[in-house]
């Protein structure tokens, strides 16, 4: 089995070497040793990185993803967690569809000033009632903005 150094992995996968080091620090991936100062990885590292990328795209935190990797390095995914995420995505989609329609209305509104539009006024009132997310806090419950 030919081990790949960190530069080769980065070149083949498009994942920055700094991100690979960070993932290793977080326990998501594991290097098999070193060649000089360069970390060495098994050839299947690309699959593990794809799994991490897919999990992030689905909105899971790195901690969540770490919990989805079994002791043998193979995926160990809870279907219950997946269904929870599906429900969260459904809610997010509904909110985004409402927001899309509101923005579309504002863009197409025939009033000379948006301030003359009753629907726009209503949107402003709704927006004023919502508290803005605190800086550094995720907007969706249970999500985090993991480093890489």
Largest sheet features: 3 strands, antiparallel
The CATH architecture of the largest domain is Orthogonal Bundle
Q: From N to C, what is the helix and strand string?
A: EHHEEHHHH
N-end to C-end Cα span: 29 Å
Number of helices: 6
Summed up, the domain count is: 2
| Name of the CATH class of the largest domain | Mainly Alpha
Region (Disordered): 129-148
Biased composition (Low complexity): 135-148
Domain HTH merR-type: 3-71
Keywords: Coiled coil, DNA-binding
In short:
The protein has 148 residues and is mainly alpha-helical.
Describe the structure.
The structure is a single chain. The chain contains 6 helices and 3 strands, in the order βααββαααα. The protein starts with a strand and ends in a 19-residue tail after the last helix. The chain has 2 domains: 4-67, Multidrug-efflux Transporter Regulator, Chain: A, Domain 2 (Orthogonal Bundle), CATH 1.10.1660.10; 79-129, no CATH class. With 148 residues, it is mainly alpha-helical. 53% of the residues lie in helices and 6% in strands. The chain is elongated, with a radius of gyration of 22 Å. The model is unreliable at 136-145 (pLDDT under 50). The longest helix is centred in the middle third of the chain and has 30 residues, at 79-108. It has a 3-stranded antiparallel sheet.
